[in-house]
# Entry
Amino acid sequence: MHETIDPIRRAPPGACDAHFHVFGAPEAYPYRDPNLRYKPPVAPLSEYLETAQRIGIERFVFVQPSAYGQDNACQLEAMAQMGDACRGVVDIHEDAPESLFESLHRQNVRGIRVNVSPVHKPEAGLVQRLLPRIDKLERRCKDFGWSLDFLFPGWLTNELLDRMAALTIDYSIAHLGMFLANEGVGQPGFQRLLRLLDSGSGRCWVKLTGFYRIARTPPGYAEVGPMVQALVKTAPDRLIWGSDDPHISFASETGTVSLYNLMCEWTGSEAVQRKILVDNPARLYGFPAMPG
# Structure
């Protein structure tokens, strides 16, 4: 999506988009998800970079789209164009050979995604089925200094918060945990997330991403603002921002610049924004610290 509005302010040096996707032509990069719920666009890296450069993004964390399942080829080829300016979060099997982990680490991969569709309805037994994968990935990521990246519907985030709290590695939670904004800051699951950030192990990171996924009130998604502000008040050192570009089925409603503007509006000070855009992702993904 090409937007005509300008950012509120240019991002500080070293700013990172910590959650975005690339999609290739389907004949070259076939989709692997048999239950694909959306038709991905062709969204090459070059198109994304046009928008990122307008904002001033200098560091990039690619996140494997669910459409490709555990075939990371499209993302890895795009990452190869960016060198040390990028990191990657992939989807691989928990029993993948050690040689694959080693190869991915050399390609700047620093995390593994554990992904359940955000629209998945409550399902008895799903937590128990996920735990063995989480347990094994925790051990394997620890060997490489990687993190886990969770995307769950809000009900499932809530049910897994206790397991997340016990993790011995860093982990990120996408889209504010997918807690629906119309249920407010006071909803039990979101309050549990705030308590985890406030008094937990310090390994939890929350992604300020996908505002449109938890509120369907474009263009301002006003209900999300109090949730972001509550997170900033609780743990400004544990928040990162990502565009979620190319926004899939939400592209007609908003775009990356608009979402960046909202983040700036809700987080307030430039000092907090520097943490969210520069310092925090540098710590989580191993980018060099910026001077100043």
Remarks:
- The chain has a mean pLDDT of 94.
- The domain at 16-285 is CATH 3.20.20.140 (TIM Barrel).
